[in-house]
Design brief:
The protein is an alpha/beta fold. The protein is built from 9 helices and 13 strands. The chain is globular and about 55 Å long.
């Protein structure tokens, strides 16, 4: 069946020809169709734990802290202000509803989204931004980046659930092996809001190999492509209603075989 995630043979050929003629370049590529994360991992060399990723991200984060760049993402520096308007809108909605904004940024690197949207966050007054990451990221963050608002933790249990009312997965849920356990924990703690930003989705559940090229960094790691329908059913089962969903860049998709993989964002609110 041809749908928003499935291309006809003609469409596949057209996109390949267009890419060749226009010499379109991409920094990210998806390949393969694996049944499990382990199978995809075996097809990779390295992974997100690769030290070269951390080295580039940590150097970029210090550049942002010094004021020489506006923010960084995956170690790539941005020098112009580019507020994530959809995210900020969700943040303000949370603040207006709960009269507070205390967020857990799960897989938040070294506070990329925090620094990107910092000027808007300051309008919230008192708030907390708590990053959960790998040990070496957390150690670096604690030593170099923490302030009265930004904190770093090794695991969700380190942050008392009474201290946060929202969890953000900023293009991170698809890389977390035990994502279901984490979502279950969030739901059991009755956290009011879950924002899943730039989740890789399709019309079927699969694992792929994701290759990232310079100028970001050169790395390969497994990525979970969620069935959008099944993912929404899961969050509904956990007791959340879908408030908003959006695609930030309609041209920001990946073609694997005859399938389109998109990055889609979801804002979920807990049933009271």
């Amino acid at each position: 069946m041809i749908n928003k995630y499935t291309l006809s043979l003609k469409e596949v050929l057209f996109k390949k020809i267009k890419k060749h003629v226009l010499r379109e370049s991409t920094w990210v590529e998806f390949t393969g169709n694996f049944d499990t994360r382990h199978e995809a991992l075996l097809a990779c060399q390295g992974g997100y734990e690769d030290n070269k990723i951390f080295d580039k991200v940590s150097k970029a984060a210090l550049t942002v802290k010094s004021g020489q760049a506006n923010y960084e993402r995956d170690g790539y520096l941005f020098y112009k202000e580019e507020i994530d308007l959809q995210l900020v809108e969700a943040f303000f909605e949370i603040y207006l509803n709960d009269k507070r904004f205390d967020l857990v940024d799960y897989g938040g690197s070294l506070g990329s989204a925090y620094f990107q949207n910092l000027k808007k966050l300051n309008f919230l007054g008192t708030y907390t931004w708590n990053v959960i990451e790998q040990k070496h990221f957390v150690d670096f963050g604690k030593d170099n980046l923490e302030n009265e608002h930004l904190k770093f933790y090794y695991q969700l249990n380190d942050v008392r659930h009474t201290k946060y009312n929202c969890v953000l997965f900023g293009a991170s849920l698809q890389y977390i092996e035990n994502y279901r356990e984490i979502l279950d924990e969030i739901a059991s703690n009755r956290i009011n809001y879950i924002i899943v930003d730039r989740l890789t989705v399709c019309d079927e559940d699969r694992y792929c190999v994701q290759r990232v090229y310079e100028p970001i960094y050169d790395a390969v790691y497994p990525v979970h492509v969620f069935s959008e329908e099944q993912f929404c059913e899961l969050l509904t089962t956990l007791g959340y209603n879908l408030e908003h969903s959006w695609i930030k860049n309609e041209r920001g998709y990946y073609v694997v075989g005859n399938k389109i993989i998109r990055e889609k964002s979801f804002f979920w609110v807990r049933n009271i």
